[in-house]
Amino acid sequence: MARTKRRGLVPLIIVGVLAVLLVGAYFLVDGGLRAFAQDTAEKEITKSMPASVTGDVTVTIGGTSVIAQFIAGSFDQVELTAPSLTVDGVPASVHVVARDVSTNTAKAIGSLTATLDVDQAALNQLVQASGTAPADAVMTLGAGVVTYTGTVKLFEFNVGYSATATATAAGDTVNIAPTEATVTSGVGDIDATPLVNLILQQAPISVCVAGYLPEGVELNGVDISPERARVTLESSTLMLTRQSLTTLGTCSG
Prior knowledge:
With 253 residues, this protein is an alpha+beta fold. It has helices spanning 2-48, 66-72, 120-130, 193-200, 242-246; strands at residues 53-54, 58-61, 74-87, 90-102, 111-118, 138-141, 146-154, 157-170, 173-185, 205-208, 218-224, 229-235. It comes from Cryobacterium flavum.
C-alpha cells in the first residue's frame, strides 16, 4: 500500500518540479525581453531627439512582467535618466518618469513628470539667452534663492547693486523676481532708497524654456539649492514618436 501511494506521488512531484522550472524559465525570458526592450527604447529615443540635444539616455521599464504588460498594451512605468544631457549647448541632468505608456506610440502617455537640473554656469547661460536680464547680471545659486549683481544707469553714473531673488514657474517660463536689493557702488552720499525701490519694482527676469522642451511639456515648480536649479516638468499629451519628441515649444514675444 505504501509503495502504491509512493507511486501515486511521483507524477505530482514531477508536475511540481516542471511547474517550478517553467516559472523560472518565464522570468528568465521576461528578464531577457526587459533588457531587450530597454535597449531598443534607448536607441529609438536617442534617434528621435532633436539635433540640438546630445547625451546618453538610460531606460528602465518598471512593473512585474514585461510580457504581461506588452500583452495588455501598455507599460506601467518607464523611467528615463540622462545625467549629462546637453540642450543647445546648455548642460543639464534630466530624470523622467512616464506612467501608463501605451505600446501604440500614436497614443499619448498617461502622465509624465520630469526634473531638469542645471548648475550655476548653465543657469547664467539661460538667463543671458533670455534677453530679459541686465547684460552684466551674474547669477549665484543659494539656499532657496538666487542672488545676482548688476548695474543701472543713474544720471551719468553706473550704479552697482546686488539683489536677492526668488524663482517661480509659470507655464513655460521661470520668473526670477528680486525681493531685496543693496546698492554697492556709485551713489556717494545720495540716499539710495529710491534706487533700491526702483530695482525691486523692475519686471522679473523671465527665462522661457519652451524652446528646450517638446511641445506640451510645462513647468510646475522650481527648486533652488547652492548646487543646482531644479525645474519640475509635467505633460499628459506627449507621445513617444519622433514628431512629438522633436517638435519643440515656442516662446511668445
